[in-house]
Amino acid sequence: MSTQSDPDETRIRLRAVLDAQFTLLLVGCLVLAAAGGFLVYGTYVDPGTEEETRTVSSWTVDSEYVHAAEVTAENPVFEVGSTLENRETYFSRIAPQLDVAAEASYTAEQSENVRIDVESELVIRNVGDGVEYWEERETLAETTVEDVEPGETVGAEFTLDSAAIDQQASDIEEELGASPGQTETEVVTTVELEGTLNGEAATYTRSMEFGIDHGGDTYTVSDPGPQSDTTPQEVTETVERTYGPLRSIGAPLLLVIGVVAGAGLSYARYEGRLAVSDAERAYLSYRDDRSEFDEWITRIRLPPAAHDRPVAYADSLRDLVDFAIDNDTGVVEDPDTGAFHAVTGEFVYTYRRPDPPVHRSTEEDPAGPDADAAEDGVGVDADPLDDGEGSTVDTADIGTSVADKNVGADDEGDDGERSDEEANGDGGPDPFAMGPTETAERDTDGDDSTDSPETNG
User: In terms of domains, do 351 and 299 share one?
Assistant: First the structure.
């Protein structure tokens, strides 16, 4: 029997797929290479440009309210003349007047012709449910300073008398004869800046509110606290477009993979390395059938008497299994020869598996003993029967032997009986034997081979 090892079935199947789908795979490789080339060109050759904005400098305007009330009446807690500063609540009887300064300043690396205007207005209004019923404005202070330097403070100072403001609101309500909403009192300060900062023309406007609420013996203020606004100065430049690592690395990789895969696939096809021989296709077909019909096949050594029957050969294992199913019989696989048999009536139906295809290195060796057989898709052991001593015989010889045996059986009965005795003596264990004596004799001989060519059908 052949001594070559089993083939790498996965490689054979892979070659079969590559050969069958060669055109589709080659087109895929070309598309991959084209996409990679397009991306490489756009990434490294002509990446194009884009607008980029970056901050080169900035300037900041700070504004806040500073307020304090001087104690003017005797009391057991605060000394007369002392100052209550930046509180939320003041006492109306001992410190009725609140001095307020709305201040503004700016910071910049460079400045030129900077002017700051600060204007504060007293606003008394009546509102309710989002509706403003009436409003009265009164300018409290207004300051304008030219050529203000960075860090210099510009302020508008004024004094608030909470009792007088409350009386003013009451007088308005009395004159109107009604007060449908709630009366609010606040100071609105507008800060404006204009000039050249860091070499660029700059303008700035901001409003901030300072609320005051008279509550009889106290009045409460609502200070927004320090306000700071920074304005960045940006420049827009046209720069070369850059890409991330996904494209800068992936594009060349895509191109290389497409080119190498396409070239390798074409070279392999040109050299015939993808071609699947008839022997390999037959072997793959057999392996598929063997896997599909495994539950219908049993490994059993047939008794020599079974081979005395005429033999019919199936073209495929599938055909043999289909025939066995239709005739309500089983398919047995001879462990020694690898042949598959189905015994029905007076015939033995046989399928002999194809030899595993030889490796490419063996096929390319013209001096190899199996070279011609491999090229024809048939191995040297394509149809062997083992006689128990390592010899083999081809399928064609089997048919001749069967014919000779049948003629010999008609003319020389004694010779037929002698052949049966020799077969029974040399055959392997017989699961179909009728008695233990015959089985014991075969076991004693220790020969598990199949019948000699003279006794097989």
Answer: yes
